[in-house]
Backbone:
């Protein structure tokens, strides 16, 4: 089999992200760019969540804390310490990774519902903590001096740069997700998901594999956080740690197909577009949450493998491309 | 077949498994009671006993699922008391479960590959795939290698369980009721497979309730009752052992049944 | 003196927290489901009591009884629609199923009632017990909570459906074999858990303001209580509730109120990590 044929599963994911970036470049409209900024953010976050949820089978209701913590750390470094955006993003990623490592040591030994419960508690505790943490601005958060944007060519230019930076990060995230999925490490994770005890009997060192998966899943959100809040101009606890976001990420992963590379991408895109539509439509504005909930329920009850999973089962021929 | 003989000669002195006074208590319940035995390499050892005698618990201790409450055990000369399951796998021990645990959403081939990748051989993916294919051929599941493990029937799942263990190319294989739920012709086929495994140089311990089968295929038998080792010997010796017969509720026809030969030969 | 009144305040609140958590604990104990729709069952009851009281002048305690029945029905409905299909599936499915119910109903609630805070303007004066003065509504709430818990226990241990519930909780397959209609029993159990949650919500509404998102808060507290007392252990839930209530009453003396949630959730995570069976042992 030729090398390119072996990696067909990477084709669609890469095409989608490159397509979005090119599309925005071509149309050149700031509004489109901002819409797709949120889409790319969702894609990157959902893909990263997929690593611990879809591949390893550990349901985390707290994935957004990596985005939030990374965002806070990075934003603090930019606004209070004058760091460059790029270094701040790296720092955010590292902070998130460190948090994942420590947190993982504490809660990854929990199984099933206990782990999920623990993450619910962690999300709430994290938000409550940051609200009280003065160096990060307490409940008010922190603001960015607009002068900072001058370093990046002015506010308008900064927004554009941010978009393409995000596209690059999302691309990297998706490629990493693919590489893991098709690696020996990934096989171990899938085995853990299916039956952790049986996997250990076969020699999978579950404790370290899970920790690695968790840390890797945290880095991309940690990198994106600073970028997002840099664009926003401010950060506050409610924006950084919304429980709703953690849940929406789960919906995206489930909708698209957990455990696949393409699934979270499709799920994130579809969900974000739907959300955008609902928020602007007068009828659905208030019940956007209800629609999302109904969607999730339908998936859980009838299509638990998500769109990509369902397609793979229905059309085995497509399996090579839909990974 | 030279290989097997070589192995037996070289390792004649050292048993592959040495169990010394191993006990397992669960609170007040003594599930395994000071069991001691040596297992020479290349043998098929049968482990029998009434329900609840502690056979699977003994496997669980050796395998690393439970820590022993007391006692020690050695694998290939090295003390492994208290090792975790994945550590035992890395040393070359493989095990099947009484209630099979297939990785449902993975394909048959992927299931087999896990054993090859994470066992003591630590193969990379492509090498593991080749080993997996060969093992699947051996157990007769080659034509189902792309199927999802969850869609197999019971007999196939049992074969997959065995394939997973074999693809790790272990030194010692623990089989926990590999014959349960199989019909007579499936049992014959499985016994055949087990003998072929032994012929490849892999030592086997089998827990079984299908008496005539285990008496047929084992070279040596251990009998557990209430967690303790009550008898040990050849199948003939065990079949005529009064304590064993008593343990199985004193069925007067037991000796006969224990020695019953399958029509298809032993 | 002040300490005593904080303490008693907290204890009274603790009874209500305990009852709120019993529902969640019961559902876990019977069917190993973590009910993430617990929050909407509480909130809908709060609003039900508010609307009945404000628009129809119904006595809140009567309204609570009405909402208890509504809660029971809602619980049975939720089980039938969302849980029945996935009850035997891996835990993720039931988790997400109840969660999606929560999303659906919260969205509807926000659309119907908006985010503005509500208050059931109802007072029973205060009760003086020696050195301590207690708001009447809190005392009645605590008493009602104890009554509800007692009622639940009586139901579980003295009636036939209660026996069936305990049988199914113990071993569903075995219960089915002796003729217990396990599906209906599961629906009933969920309904009971929902009913108790609704009762607690209504009680809370008589002395605290609330809005459509308050349920989340009490759901989190219920988690903490359940984990304190042991998931699946209803008596433990009561005791856990008292502990939490007491802590909430006393801690503000020593630290800023805004740190209380941090303490609570920290405690929650701590216990889950080190003693997931709770302080009193869970029903596994």
Residues:
């Amino acid at each position: 089999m030729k090398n390119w044929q072996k990696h067909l599963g990477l084709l669609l994911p890469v095409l989608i992200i490159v397509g979005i970036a090119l599309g925005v470049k071509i149309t050149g409209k700031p509004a489109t760019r901002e819409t797709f900024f949120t889409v790319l953010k969702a894609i990157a976050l959902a893909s990263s969540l997929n690593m611990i949820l879809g591949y390893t089978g550990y349901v985390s209701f707290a994935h957004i804390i990596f985005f939030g913590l990374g965002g806070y750390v990075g934003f603090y470094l930019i606004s209070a310490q004058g760091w460059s955006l790029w270094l701040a993003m790296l720092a955010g990623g590292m902070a998130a990774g460190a948090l994942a490592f420590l947190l993982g040591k504490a809660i990854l030994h929990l199984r099933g519902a206990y782990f999920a419960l623990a993450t619910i508690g962690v999300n709430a505790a994290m938000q409550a903590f940051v609200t009280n943490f003065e160096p990060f601005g307490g409940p008010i958060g922190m603001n960015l001096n607009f002068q900072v944007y001058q370093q990046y060519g002015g506010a308008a230019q900064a927004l554009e740069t941010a978009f393409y930076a995000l596209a690059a990060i999302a691309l990297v995230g998706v490629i990493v997700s693919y590489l893991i999925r098709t690696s020996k490490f990934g096989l171990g994770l899938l085995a853990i998901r299916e039956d952790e005890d049986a996997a250990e009997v076969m020699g999978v060192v579950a404790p370290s594999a899970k920790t690695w998966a968790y840390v890797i899943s945290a880095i991309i959100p940690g990198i994106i956080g600073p970028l997002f809040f840099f664009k926003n101009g401010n950060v506050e606890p409610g924006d950084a740690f919304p429980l709703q976001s953690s849940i929406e990420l789960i919906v995206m992963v489930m909708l698209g197909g957990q455990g696949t590379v393409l699934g979270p991408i499709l799920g994130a895109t579809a969900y974000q577009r739907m959300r955008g539509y609902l928020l602007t439509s007068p009828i659905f504005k208030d019940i956007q949450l209800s629609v999302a909930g109904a969607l999730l329920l339908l998936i859980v009850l009838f299509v638990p493998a998500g769109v990509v999973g369902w397609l793979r089962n229905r059309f085995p021929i497509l399996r090579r491309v839909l990974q | 077949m030279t290989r097997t003989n070589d192995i037996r000669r070289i390792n004649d002195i050292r048993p592959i498994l040495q169990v010394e006074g191993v006990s397992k208590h669960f609170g007040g319940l003594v599930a395994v009671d000071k069991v001691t035995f040596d297992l020479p390499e290349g043998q098929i050892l049968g482990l029998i006993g009434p329900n609840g005698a502690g056979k699977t618990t003994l496997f669980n201790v050796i395998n690393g699922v439970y820590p022993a409450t007391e006692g020690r055990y050695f694998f290939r000369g090295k003390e492994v008391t208290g090792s975790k399951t994945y550590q035992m796998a890395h040393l070359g021990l493989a095990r099947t479960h009484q209630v099979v645990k297939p990785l449902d959403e993975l394909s048959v081939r992927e299931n087999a590959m896990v054993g090859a990748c994470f066992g003591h051989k630590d193969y990379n993916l492509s090498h593991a795939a080749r080993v997996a294919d060969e093992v699947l051929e051996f157990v007769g599941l080659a034509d189902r290698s792309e199927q999802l493990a969850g869609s197999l029937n019971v007999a196939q799942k049992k074969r997959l369980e065995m394939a997973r263990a074999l693809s790790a190319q272990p030194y010692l294989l623990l089989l926990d009721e590999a014959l349960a739920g199989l019909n007579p012709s499936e049992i014959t086929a499985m016994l055949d497979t087990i003998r072929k495994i032994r012929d490849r140089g892999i030592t086997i311990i089998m827990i079984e309730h299908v008496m005539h089968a285990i008496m047929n295929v084992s070279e040596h038998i251990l009998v557990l009752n209430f967690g303790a080792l009550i008898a040990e010997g050849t199948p003939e010796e065990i079949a005529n052992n009064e304590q064993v017969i008593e343990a199985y509720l004193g069925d007067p026809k037991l000796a006969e049944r224990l020695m019953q030969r399958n029509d298809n030969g032993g | 003196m002040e300490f005593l009144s904080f303490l008693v305040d907290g204890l009274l609140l603790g009874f209500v927290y305990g009852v709120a958590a019993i529902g969640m604990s019961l559902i876990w104990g019977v069917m190993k489901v973590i009910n993430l729709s617990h929050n909407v069952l509480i909130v809908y009851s709060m609003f039900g009591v508010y609307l009945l009281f404000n628009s129809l002048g119904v006595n809140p305690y009567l309204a609570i009884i009405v909402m208890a029945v509504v809660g029971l029905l809602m619980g049975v409905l939720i089980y039938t629609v969302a849980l029945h299909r996935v009850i035997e599936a891996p835990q993720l499915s039931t988790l997400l199923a109840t969660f999606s119910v929560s999303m659906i109903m919260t969205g509807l609630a926000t659309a119907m009632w908006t985010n503005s805070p509500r208050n059931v303007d109802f007072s029973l004066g205060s009760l003086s017990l020696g050195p301590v003065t207690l708001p009447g509504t809190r005392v009645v709430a605590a008493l009602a909570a104890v009554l509800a818990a007692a009622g639940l226990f009586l139901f579980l241990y003295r009636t036939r459906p209660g026996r069936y519930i305990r049988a199914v909780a113990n071993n569903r397959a075995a219960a089915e074999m002796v003729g217990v209609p396990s599906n209906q029993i599961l629906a009933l159990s969920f309904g009971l858990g929902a009913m108790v949650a609704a009762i607690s919500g209504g009680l809370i509404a008589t002395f605290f303001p609330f809005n459509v998102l308050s349920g989340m808060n009490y759901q989190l507290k219920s988690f903490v209580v359940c984990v304190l007392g042991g998931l699946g252990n209803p008596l433990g839930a009561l005791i856990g509730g008292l502990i939490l209530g007491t802590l909430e009453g006393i801690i503000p003396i020593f630290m800023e109120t805004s740190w209380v949630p941090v303490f609570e959730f920290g405690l929650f995570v701590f216990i889950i990590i080190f003693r997931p069976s709770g302080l009193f042992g869970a029903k596994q």
